[in-house]
């Protein structure tokens, strides 16, 4: 009994170590630290993938600054620190990312925040222990980073995003990940081809403007995305994706070629070994 208990304790420790060892620690801004510099934190966060259990370290002068955690993209965008989720002010704050989704951080010093001292990170679940899917289809869902290394910005060639989407197959349940500078662009989902072609922003289906947006493709058909910045949209910052329905059941049986049929037929005459 004692041996069994020791074995179970050892297994539990190893499991916990496996989960914890995968966590990473990120110093916000690297050598820049936590300060007011326009665009610094957008570029810094877009090059990383944050998981549940990872930690952010904010280093700054605690006498003149702080880290304020806010709950929404709207508070983040307008530097509204009136109803913070949490406030850190030690000058060396360690914040563990305990749940998936968007996490918003600003400085409560409004002028500092407006000057660029704000950070949004998108946190995913552990890769090793994915969350149970709400539907059977989700284990097969894929994440597509829109534009790949180009991300979501005005392309050099106006048909860049058309070519990007044509090279891929999208299905219901897949996700589009948009990374961009929220101070320069945004994302509008529009309902039809006419709005898409004319860059009509008057009646969007949805608006995204956090700088790191995840859009789940929930139904088959054609989905349209543009930016509200009219010159940018006309210059090619628009995306149309064709979403296919899920194929029910397992994979289809592979079709055999005539030669395969012949080989299979000949194998049926192979003598069986005697026992």
TrEMBL record:
The keyword Iron-sulfur appears for this protein: no
Keywords attached to this entry: Disulfide bond, Glycoprotein, Signal
Gene3D superfamilies tied to this protein: Cupredoxins - blue copper proteins (2.60.40.420)
Pfam families cross-referenced by the UniProt entry: Cu_bind_like
GO molecular function: electron transfer activity
Domain spans labelled Phytocyanin: 24-125, 142-245
CC per GO annotation: plasma membrane
Leader peptide range in chain numbering: 1-22
InterPro entries the UniProt entry points to: Cupredoxin (IPR008972), Phytocyanin-like (IPR039391), Phytocyanin_dom (IPR003245)
Protein's name according to its UniProt entry: Phytocyanin domain-containing protein
Source species taxonomy: Eukaryota, Viridiplantae, Streptophyta, Embryophyta, Tracheophyta
């Amino acid at each position: 009994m004692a041996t069994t208990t020791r074995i179970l304790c050892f297994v539990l420790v190893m499991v916990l170590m496996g989960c914890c060892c995968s966590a990473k620690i990120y110093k916000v801004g690297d050598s820049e630290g936590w300060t007011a510099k326009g665009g610094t934190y957008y570029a810094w966060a877009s090059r990383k993938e944050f998981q549940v259990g990872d930690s952010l370290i904010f280093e700054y002068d605690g006498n003149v600054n702080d880290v304020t955690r806010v709950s929404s993209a709207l508070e983040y965008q307008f530097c509204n620190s009136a109803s913070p989720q949490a406030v850190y002010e030690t000058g060396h704050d360690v914040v563990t990312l305990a749940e998936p989704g968007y996490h918003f951080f600003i400085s409560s010093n409004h002028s500092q925040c407006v000057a660029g001292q704000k950070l949004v990170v998108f946190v995913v679940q552990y890769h090793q222990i994915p969350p149970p899917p709400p539907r059977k289809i989700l284990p097969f869902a894929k994440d597509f980073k829109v534009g790949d290394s180009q991300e979501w910005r005005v392309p050099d060639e106006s048909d860049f995003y058309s070519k990007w989407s044509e090279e891929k197959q999208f299905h219901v349940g897949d996700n589009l990940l948009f990374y961009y500078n929220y101070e320069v662009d945004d994302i509008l989902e529009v309902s039809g081809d006419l709005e898409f072609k004319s860059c009509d922003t008057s009646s969007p289906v949805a608006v995204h403007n956090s700088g790191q947006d995840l859009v789940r493709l929930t139904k088959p058909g054609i989905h349209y995305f543009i930016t509200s910045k009219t010159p940018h949209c006309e210059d090619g910052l628009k995306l149309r994706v064709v979403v296919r329905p899920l194929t029910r059941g397992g994979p289809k049986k592979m079709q055999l070629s005539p030669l395969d049929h012949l080989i299979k037929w000949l194998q049926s005459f192979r003598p069986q070994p005697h026992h």
